Protein: Ig-like domain-containing protein
Amino acid sequence: MAPPDPRSLLVFALVVVLLSCHTWEVRATAEVNMEDRVDVMLGDSAQITCMFSSEDGPGGTMIQWFYVARTGEKKRIYNLESGISLPDKGTPFSERINVNGSAASGAVVMTINDVQLKDELEFICIVKSLTDGTAEGRTKLRVFQTPEAPTIIGAQQGISVQETDLSKIGTCEVKNGYPRPNITWYKNTTPIHSIRDEVNVVPSVTTESSGLYSVKSELSMKVMKEDADAVFSCEVTYFSPGCETRMVETSAIDITVYYPHTSIKVWVESPKGKIKEGDTLEIHCSGDGNHPSTTFNIGVEEKVLIEGKVLVVENVTRLDSGVYRCTALNMESWIEISENTTVFVDYLEDVVIKPEKIIEVLQGDNGEATCNALSSLNTQTTWFKNGQEVSKGHTLSLNDASFETAGTYVCVVTALEVDGVERSGAVRVHVQGAPEILTPENAELEESVDQTVELSCYVRGYPHPTVTWSTSEGKIVPTASNTETDDGLISMASVTVTGDVIVFCNATNTLGEDSVAFSIKAKGSGVIIAVIIVCILLLAILGSVLYFLYKKGKICGRSGKQDLNKGKAGKDNIVVEMKSDNTEEAVLLGVNGEKQLQ
Structure:
């Protein structure tokens, strides 16, 4: 390093001596205090305050207001001097500003009305004093506008996870804000940011003619199956006066995500449990995907029965048993997957009874019948007669047969594992024997004359007996009806009562005969005889009276007879002609007792 120049050291020493020997006068300078920034909403009024201190009075102080143009040039908009306050003409603020305060107060306030976006400038307050010099302060005016409510629009079509490119999820937009709003995407509650080859968030900003900002953000991403359950939303942040950050959210949207099937299942939806012949079979098929390009079909073995996810087979039979396959084919990737289910249809065939239809067994002998039905299920066989259970098992044994044994036996085969599955058949048992007429309860009857009596005769025996009706007088009584029963028949006959009579029911077949008698007493025959006797007695008395009158001469002879045709007919001229076996004389006796000759 070179040593200092001696001449320089000499000059420096001289200056120090002069300064130390001279007395300097320190004078105060003007000071201006202003806020760094003033915030105001678009269209409101802004107040910018300029505070200053100066030892000069109002007459020695001049205050001027300037703004800094976009070009950096200072332009005056207001001047306050010697108590005279005037805005400069021809400026953007000439008609919109006013200034309050004075140099004496040490503060002036400039008010800008109807603030516009173009007013967002820096404003300068310059204070000039005769003794204190010049000072200035600066304030930046910040203008704010709350944006409109944001909107969100989701993808209108489904998105496949098999897409190789990023898929558009949706678009968020917020309009007419100032300063520029910001948009943040969310998936559920997690913010979304751009990730190469996975997520792309593309914002765009539009400056409207008003100077306000509109912001749009478009989200694209590679979707996964899990995104089918996700919701997407946007958060908009914007600024307000005071540097406050505010936030507003959009509504949430979801998207339709298409993803291929990786597995499928097939099952019998109906009926639940065992399947029996006659049921309606319903087979369903589904997978874990939802891609619209996937087709389903259901078939048995190699035969396709239906294109779709549901197969319905009505009135199934055992021939519908088999392995049913559901197949899903992705028409984009041509990947096919399938799954099987086995269907078995249980059956119970019609019963087979041997001997068929009719069994004939001699009275006192033994007989039997068997009943079977082919089935894929465990079964139970029960025999019934007249609705009452008489035997269990496949074989019906008829020991020491009697007429009570005869009748219709029903064999019912029931599937034990499936409710409501049963088959039945019947066999008729005839017990061979001579006719046997059961003693009637009304073998002796009393009935009025001319009344009709209904007689019935219950005959047991087989072959079916022939029944005839007859009376004790040998007359044949027509049969009204014959009704077959399990062990014989019931014969009916109608008899009209004319007097006491005995009616016979006669039954015969190839093995014998039998008969029963009905005794019918006619009520009212004694009364008729009594009436006849009374009539005879009355006639006898009348004859006696007439004879007595004749003997007394109260009755005229034949010579005194008058011509009845000449007499006057009337209600009182009724006459009786009397003749005697001993005389030819006749007497006409009037009802009023007068004799009239014939």
User: Anything to note?
Assistant: The chain is about 5% helix and 50% strand.
